[in-house]
């Protein structure tokens, strides 16, 4: 019997949230899960929110994660972590990329980026993991692999074996980018 597991991936357009979702979905299917996915893209090409909800179980009937129902929230950006925090289970884990991307109101001067986001979340969620994914991706050779670094961190919190994740990565990522993405996944998994 496969343990039900709900995950949310939240970020902004251009961070690779959709690719990460495809890899995660492929790994879950390879493990034998029934999976339902719901994607919300709000002006994603202009830096808007991108939210993916994934529900994994023996049998899944709805693609939507209930508020307070996510086992893991994987946030590609700090403000998005704050925005979607209410979807995390009380005993859930939040993985946050320590990166700030200014939304349009901040860019136009209409608002300020909130101070102390990580401290606020860390004070409320016992299982908070902050990752400098962009720095790690740069060390792996490509800053665009920060999403796969985060996926590597997520993989350790899910009931799917590392070998299955690596197979999914090989099946989804184009060959010319595969080695750097394997390196990024391994770096995240090692955290």
- Estimate the global geometry from the Cα principal axes: globular
What is the CATH superfamily? Pyruvate-ferredoxin oxidoreductase, PFOR, domain III
Unreliable spans: none
- What is the CATH class name? Alpha Beta
Query: DSSP strand (E) fraction?
Result: 15-25%
Largest sheet, strands/sense/barrel = 6 strands, mixed
Mean pLDDT: 94
C-alpha termini separation: 29 Å
Radius of gyration: 16 Å
Question: Any descriptors?
Answer:
single chain, 191 residues, alpha/beta, Pyruvate-ferredoxin Oxidoreductase, domain 3, six-stranded mixed sheet, globular
Spell out the blueprint of helices and strands.
Elements: E1 5-12, H1 17-31, E2 34-41, E3 49-57, E4 70-75, H2 78-83, E5 88-97, H3 104-107, H4 117-124, E6 127-131, H5 133-140, H6 146-155, H7 162-172, H8 175-189
Parallel strand pairs: 1-4, 4-5, 5-6
Antiparallel strand pairs: 1-3, 2-3
Helix pairs in contact: 1-7, 5-6, 5-8, 6-8
Describe the structure.
The chain is of the alpha/beta class. It has one domain: Pyruvate-ferredoxin oxidoreductase, PFOR, domain III (Pyruvate-ferredoxin Oxidoreductase, domain 3, 3-Layer(aba) Sandwich), CATH 3.40.920. It has 8 helices and 6 strands, in the order E-H-E-E-E-H-E-H-H-E-H-H-H-H. It has helices spanning 17-31, 78-83, 104-107, 117-124, 133-140, 146-155, 162-172, 175-189; strands at 5-12, 34-41, 49-57, 70-75, 88-97, 127-131. It has a 6-stranded mixed beta sheet, sandwiched between helices. A hairpin with a 7-residue loop joins strand 2 and strand 3. Helix 5 (133-140) crosses helix 6 (146-155) and helix 6 packs across helix 8 (175-189). The longest helix has 15 residues, at 17-31. The protein is globular, with a radius of gyration of 16 Å. The chain starts with a strand and ends with a helix. The model has no long low-confidence stretch (mean pLDDT 94).
